[in-house]
Design goal:
The chain is α+β, with helices and mostly antiparallel strands. The protein has two domains: 16-57 and 219-354, 2-Layer Sandwich (Beta-Lactamase), CATH 3.30.450.20; 73-214, Beta-Lactamase (2-Layer Sandwich). 47% of the residues lie in helices and 18% in strands. It has twelve helices and eleven strands. It has helices at residues 10-72, 76-87, 92-104, 110-116, 119-130, 162-168, 220-223, 258-271, 299-302, 316-319, 321-353, 357-364; strands at residues 134-141, 146-149, 176-177, 181-183, 188-198, 205-214, 232-237, 242-245, 278-283, 289-296, 308-315. The strands form two sheets. Strands 1, 2, 3, 4, 5 and 6 form a six-stranded antiparallel sheet that branches. A five-stranded antiparallel sheet has the order 8-7-11-10-9. Helix 1 (10-72) packs antiparallel against helix 11 (321-353). The longest helix is centred in the first third of the chain and has 63 residues, at 10-72. The radius of gyration is 42 Å and the shape is rod-shaped. The two termini are 43 Å apart.
Amino acid sequence: MPRRWPPLNTRVLTVVLLVGLPVLVIGIGIVLSIGRYRLKEAQGERLAEMAEYMAASVDTYVFRSILDASVLARVPDIRQAAARGNERPFDNRAALELDRQWLRDPANSAERSSLLDSSASRFLADLARNDSVKREVLVTDRHGRLVAASNVTTDYFQADEEWWRQAFDEGRGRVSVSDVRHDASAGVYAFEIAVPVPALSGNELAGVMKIVADSREMLTGIGGVEFGATAEAMLVRSNGSIVFRRRPHTEGDRFFAADLLREQLETRASRKEPPGPLRFDAAAPDGTGRLVVVAPSQLGRSFPVLAWFVALSVDQDELLAPFRSLVWYLLLAFALTAIAVLAIALWLSLRLAAPTIDSAVEMHLVDHAQPDVGYADGPDTKP
């Protein structure tokens, strides 16, 4: 007769499958969720460290430039040039007239020639030639009249300029730093540092010195960031406009996550949270999801016009690429474990459905009745 498979215990099979497989699916889902979260957190922390480092580099560069400018303003040639300028009587009308002539006549006039031929101007010209960061340096007396310059400037009278008024500060003198912008005189994207020039004796203000500093060296760290193929770093203002990015941009371009940045800043201010990196998800203009990390510059505390932020963003598909390989490994583990659970369930159902040894033995020990056997001598005859 053909061999028959033992019957399945469907109740055991069903219980094992209903208990084992859902627990396995839930466990795989929890592992995937934790792995994705941990990877994103680790990458986000790495981005935050990079953003903080770049913001600190920008702060250090600007403060070092301010210190250099303050030291330069105390050079004797500079202080003497400002003092000699103050010896001349100040006539506002004459200063404005000379300023108009300066603008109308681009050729070197006698006034310009004598000014650029002074020892202070020659010193500044040498400084600008040997230091590519300092694109232009000029010095005025305490009335705003130009007394020394590294090169020919576009105007003569500086007292009507905002940077001069801030640095002069009604005769008290203070450091003034401008935002990064295109400077027509120097022909570069630069920022301006204006510092007071002290008198030869005492702490009185003798004049003001301005340095037009090329911003490329300051922004090198932002432009050279390397964090995958899709990572991008920007220096942005608190209103969302872009100060600098590696890709070409025009004045007025905005950070793609400017609105989310403003909301995050408002939320932090309402909760009175300490300053630090911000991290959030945002959609890029092309629709891709990006992880954004923003680190504030500390310059805004001293110079409100420099309320800058370093923003790092990276495509989330690239960010989570290592996670996708992990998913495949987990799916393979899930398949193998599911096969193992199914095999165990089948074995248990077969095992529990088959008769036990005790029952088989009992079947052999059943007392069977002996049939009556007749003999030739009669029923009562016994051997």
